[in-house]
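Re-running the complex after MR caught last week's input typo. The corrected sequence lines follow. Everything else is unchanged.
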Amino acid sequence: MAGHIPLQQTPTTIKVTTVSQEPKAIRWTLTFIALAFLALFLVLPLVTIFITAFQKGWETYVAAITHPDALSAIKLTLLVVLITVPLNAIFGVMAAWAITKFQFKGKNILITIIDLPFAISPVIAGLVFILLFGAQGLFGEWLFEHDLKIVFALPGIVLATIFVTLPFVARELIPLMQAQGTAEEEASLTLGASGFKTFLLVTLPNIKWGLLYGLILCNARAIGEFGAVSVVSGHIRGMTNTMPLHIEILYNEYQFSAAFAVASLMSVLAIITLIVKNLIEWKAKHT
Amino acid sequence: MNILPVRKRKRRNIIPGFGLSLGYTMLYVSILVLLPLSMVFINTTTMNWSEFIETITDERVVASYKLSFGTALAAGILNVIFGTIIAWVLVRYPFPGKRIVDGLVDLPFALPTAVAGIALTTLYAPQGWVGQFFDFKIAFTPLGIIIALTFIGLPFVVRTVQPVLQNFNGEVEEASASLGANRLQTFIKVILPELIPAILTGFSLAFARALGEYGSVVFIAGNMPMKTEITPLIIMTKLEQYDYAGATAIATVMLVVSFLLLFIINMIQWVTNRKFLHS
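Corrected-run output:
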């Protein structure tokens, strides 16, 4: 496990007896430190985004997010997410099925390989695709001859995003399906259901919350990925700029209100992600 | 008397799809992870050894290692201290709005790094809401980098320590108290040792993430060579100058460090799991 925290139970306050309870003063101080730290590091930046976004008024805000370049960035980001997330979801289910339902040699190595993208700098995740498909890359000449573009175009952005979000669904499903074992599937198969039917009617209902949880995290990262996409995109305005790259350009041009307007859209998505994530945790606990 | 060796009866697995699922998985990771990553090592071999050493020990590059390592370490330590306190408070003390606060801890996982980067820069710039209260510069110095990395790594320590505290057996604490230990002694001698593996895991995860982090750092760092230029940024700069060999050489160094960290994280978890199995 690197860079990923699996689905957990919603925290509840533990009841502690008086002997193992700290004095009131210490409790208050610790609570204050924790809340002050979170306010300074999490709440304040979030508030800044929305205040700066609306600093120059509602019209500037609307103009910023309806600018053709902004709209094309939003469209591109959505397109990338629509391709990336389902692919990694199918991979995640396949990988978890192979790893948890069967015994084979090298399983731990396979799990480590699936973990790799979490341990690697996003910049390197972009670099590797330049080395493969760039002008001087391994397939560079071949691609040029056939007039195909991968790097500095949509396929490159999709590949880099797939790379950085590859572990999310698999990482979520492996411990879950490991804990569930194979008994229910075996029962279904023994009773004559086909393999696919068993997966659909037995396995899928068991893993739906874990799957959804992985999807949500994968989706959030795919929308927001910056470093890897920045390397392979080529920053062509209105063409290969995703939302985070568009924010960077606006910010570097000192169009702060516009940059934060687009950033506020992404922040709303992030907040929705957190809410859905908590709902799933609650659901998983209560079913 | 000869005893026939007991043949271990292999349990026949009736679950279908082994070939398909494993084949698909292997193909997917080979094309999308192994092949791309191997390119880094293959491309490095096109350089000769002295060129390689020269590139990775260049003065400016070495300064970036020190900066990346130092700031990631500082952010990791901050996260260990405050992350443990936050996890403790979330598990042990009731306060209003706790569900919301708990959910908010994951914000750095959900918020795009570029968005976090520009927000933190605006806050900690000399004229910013927070920056104006300090006589010294925060944004555009290593201090700013530490703040961005602390933000990015915050959930790791909290989320690894929290479940351990939740499952902690309260009877042990009561026993410790009844044997005459005061609260601080109980914490240091009874509770903390149980938390150490989780804290170490959280620290390594946050540290590994911080070493490679790019999006949130580039805005707040100021990116001055020798002073506030992190290693991922050097790779980026070399790529923009079409110095692919140089970028790849430095990427090799970072990859080796990442593999080492991944290995250490797995070791910590392996040792911890073993300990649990034996006790």
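None of the earlier attempt is carried over here. Chain A has a mean pLDDT of 90. Residues 57-286 of chain A form a domain with the MetI-like fold fold (CATH 1.10.3720.10).
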